[in-house]
Design a protein that fits this description.
- With 63 residues, this protein is mostly helical.
- The protein has one domain (3-61).
- Helix content is 94%, strand content 0%.
- The chain has two helices and no strands.
- The protein has helices at 3-22, 24-62.
Amino acid sequence: MDRWDVLALLGIVLLGTGLWLIAPWLGLTVGGAVLLGVGLCGSVLAERAAVRQELIDATKGGA
């Protein structure tokens, strides 16, 4: 977990807390949507990195 993850988590918590003061259901919904988006983007980026690393390893092994 690097500093960007911590800042994103802090932003999500503060956003959810602020929206909770307006309407509890709105805070939960937006917080959940943001967490879902962050999780999906992180998953896609990790998968791309793994595929890229496999391609690099295959290229080095074949040369």
